[in-house]
Amino acid sequence: MHHGENGGSAYYRPPSRPAPRPAPRPAPRPAPAPRPVPRLVPRPAPAVRPAPGPAPAPGQRPSPARWWPPPAPRYVAPPPKPRATASPQYVYVPQPRYYYYYSRRPTPVVVFTRPAFWSQSACVRNACEAQFHQCSSLYDGCACYPGLLQCAQSQCAVEYVAARDECNYALSQMPSCRLECAPKSYPLTTDANDDDGNSIVVSYNVMSSVRIQGATRATFAGSDDEFSQAIWAVLANTTWPNVSQVLLDDVLDVQIATSSSTTLPEGGAIVTATTTVLEIHFKVEVDSNATMHRVQQALEADMLRQNDTASVLATTLLDRGVLFNTTQLSMVYALTAIDVISTQGNEGWLALWIILASLVVVALLIGWRVMTRERSRRPEENLHLLQPST
């Protein structure tokens, strides 16, 4: 508190300050420009996918082009062959289990020449009998008869017809070996040289044939291996180590006469009814003459089982689905067969080849000499040859 000059008291007031001016308001923001409306662009159509390629065959995978070497193909076993089934039209016709056995004597016929043949054929007896008996002591008559016919044809032309008739008579006796009435060489040596220096090699085989009722060539297709394995099963206990291979020569449909029924055609004549069966011809190759006869006996014994016992061959084919009943199978024949692989007369072919080769060499030498003579002439000689003569 202060006292003034007038003796009065007063409060000190500071001078008043001017009121601050109000802050200017911010300028209003301009309205934002309207956003441009986007132009509608049609959506592109989806691309057309290429058609897929053909699907790979089942069991095969296409190898990538960039892989090298390509991976080994994966083996896929073929689907199993369906088992044989009887058709609705199948009718079983009883047949002998071994056709050939019931049409020949139980003892195999291996010697065919009758004594009357030698006594009536003096030329053949003098020229061919000794060699024929020498062959028969090693083999059977079937292997030696072609040699007898060849000897008769070359040495005794007049008596050749009689020798051939004797062969046909032997063939009618249903021998246990394959007989061919045609001239061929004797199989007198095996892997050796004869007196003339010719190598004669023979092969030993068993030719056999079976029939299957209720089957055709079409239904049997693809069963070759199963049939071969069934033959191996028959030979397993006796001759298997000495058998080289089993080959199927022919498979065909044949018609056979049935003895149980007959038909009456429009003409009125009674004829025997026929049925179609499958016939299989096969060959068993062996290593020796003794093995050949054991294989033949094993096949015959298997088909001639007593007490209506099914054969091993039929049972195995049934297990493998080739047959639907063991009674379908029957054997036609089982014959031994000896074939000559290389025969006499090879020296004739060798001589022919030598002559042909000599002619070719002589022609080449003549041509070479002519060409050499043409090249050795002087130019004026060639010009003189070209000028016309006056």
From TrEMBL:
Transmembrane segments: 348-368
Sequence ranges of Pro residues compositional bias: 15-70
Protein name (record): Aste57867_15545 protein
Organism expressing this protein natively: Aphanomyces stellatus
Region ranges (Disordered): 1-70
The entry's keywords: Membrane, Transmembrane, Transmembrane helix
Name of the gene encoding the protein in the UniProt record: Aste57867_15545
